[in-house]
């Protein structure tokens, strides 16, 4: 599934999607902890991260498209 800028994620590996623009403390803390452990994948191509994708491998993926766009792409991928 395309998460923007020709970056792809296996939708079967996604366990949660969160909106980063709300500045939620638990989400911000999870991203910081993942950065400290070297488990963050930045797929924003230098743009503002709007969405955080949590993978079953423990990786945290930062993406530019908003959560609704990514959710819509997951639903479209499931229909194919």
Quick overview of this protein structure:
The chain is α+β, with helices and mostly antiparallel strands and 80 residues long.
Keywords:
single chain, alpha+beta, four-stranded mixed sheet, 2 helices, 4 strands
Description:
A hairpin with a 4-residue loop joins β3 and β4. The chain has a four-stranded mixed beta sheet, with helices on both faces. It has helices at residues 25-36, 67-79; strands at residues 14-19, 40-42, 51-55, 60-63. 31% of the residues lie in helices and 22% in strands. It is globular, with a radius of gyration of 12 Å. It starts with 13 loop residues before the first strand and ends with a helix. The protein has one domain (11-79). It contains two helices and four strands, in the order βαβββα. 15% of the residues are buried. With 80 residues, it is of the alpha+beta class.
The counted number of beta strands is: 4
Which bin fits the share of residues in helices?
25-40%
Helices, by number, come to: 2
In terms of per-residue confidence, which ranges show pLDDT below 50 for 5 or more consecutive residues?
none
Biggest sheet: strand arrangement: 1-3-4-2
Count of domains: 1
Taken from the alpha-carbon principal axes, the silhouette is globular
Write the layout of secondary structure elements.
Elements: E1 14-19, H1 25-36, E2 40-42, E3 51-55, E4 60-63, H2 67-79
Parallel strand pairs: 2-4
Antiparallel strand pairs: 1-3, 3-4
């Amino acid at each position: 599934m395309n998460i923007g800028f020709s970056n792809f994620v296996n939708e079967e590996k996604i366990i949660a999607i969160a909106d980063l623009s709300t500045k939620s403390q638990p989400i911000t803390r999870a991203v910081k902890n993942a950065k400290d452990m070297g488990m963050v994948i930045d797929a924003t191509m230098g743009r503002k991260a709007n969405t955080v994708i949590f993978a079953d491998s423990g990786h945290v993926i930062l993406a530019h498209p908003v959560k609704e766009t990514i959710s819509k792409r997951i639903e479209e991928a499931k229909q194919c």
